[in-house]
Amino acid sequence: MGFAVLAAALDANAYCRSTTSRQRSTALGECVRTGIPLGWRSRCTGFSLYRTGVPAEVGEAAFSRLALTATQAWARVPCDQDGLGQQYFRVVANLPTWQLSGYNAQGQNANTLSFRHTWNDNAIHRPGAIAITIATFDSFTGEIYDADMELNTFDDASNRDGFHFSVAPVVSDPGAADLQTILTHEFGHFMGLSHSDNDRAVMWPEAGPSEIRRDLTADDAAGMCAIYPEQNTPNARCIAVPYGGLSTQADGTVVTAGGCSLRPGALASPRAPLAVFAALALLRGRRRERRATRAS
Ligand SMILES: [Zn+2]
């Protein structure tokens, strides 16, 4: 009995928020608590699909649908105490983009989701990771300016260690990664969460091949509510245009929000945005091994 209560208490606090700290967690379950926690300034943001490189086995329609589903898992977490479950955080699907990952302080931006057909070409793209999320934030306030997701995509010519992604309700290819599971995890990073040490949570850092974990646990939801506590009124007006305008055109045309651009005053200040790889690797193949170890 005592053990069960203890386990429940630990699980309730297993989530971990990303912070401005340069310190990186080195062990599974370790949570860096120094620095300012990260989060979006408003309860409204958007994402854009990268226009090319979507594998045929996925297709643009399924990519778009699953990305939106994954965002909604987070956006619909009810953090209110009255139990009405009002949605107050909105993530909208912006127009697709040609802009790759990264933040442009001088121009337009997009929170880009892309299938990357090369990997391991720098320290960010670690071998074996299924996907990463790269966040750019204000190093003084923790405000997230930009967050981009990259998927480690199998390519017969350029990335034979990449992954196949499944968009089916049930993953039939035993070696494929469930795209909705991966996107839901990465959108947790997008929101400002780091890894949880609850091995049932979406934010647990590892996933086995064909493993499905699409639904948030209470731990994931508690993490979301810690970053974005209840607001009295839902965010009815959501203009999810990134700082500098939304980048959608190959020729650099900028879509602005009709005078309501969210261009930040902070960029005119001496504060420099600090781009980091937010430690967001999802490793393959080790989950079952770990379970077996724990069971023994
Ligand atoms: Zn991760």
Could you explain how this protein is built, in words?
This protein is of the alpha/beta class and 296 residues long. It has a single domain (14-19, 31-295), classed as Collagenase (Catalytic Domain) (3-Layer(aba) Sandwich), CATH 3.40.390. The protein contains 5 helices and 12 strands. The protein has a 6-stranded mixed beta sheet. It has a two-stranded parallel ribbon with strand order 6-7. It has a two-stranded parallel ribbon with strand order 8-12. A hairpin with a 5-residue loop joins strand 4 and strand 5. Helix 2 packs across helix 3. The protein is globular. The structure holds zinc ion. Zinc ion binds at residues 185, 189, 195, 205, 280, 282.
What's the overall geometry? Answer: globular
What's the architecture in CATH terms? 3-Layer(aba) Sandwich
CATH topology: Collagenase (Catalytic Domain)
**How many independent structural domains?**
1
Summarize the main sheet: 6 strands, mixed
Q: Report Rg.
A: 19 Å
Q: What's the oligomerization state?
A: single chain
Poorly predicted segments: 1-11, 252-296
Physical arrangement of strands within the biggest beta sheet: 2-1-3-5-4-11
Total DSSP E strands: 12
Query: What is the fourth-level CATH superfamily?
Result: Collagenase (Catalytic Domain)
Tell me, rounded to a whole number, the average pLDDT.
78
- What is the beta-strand fraction? 15-25%
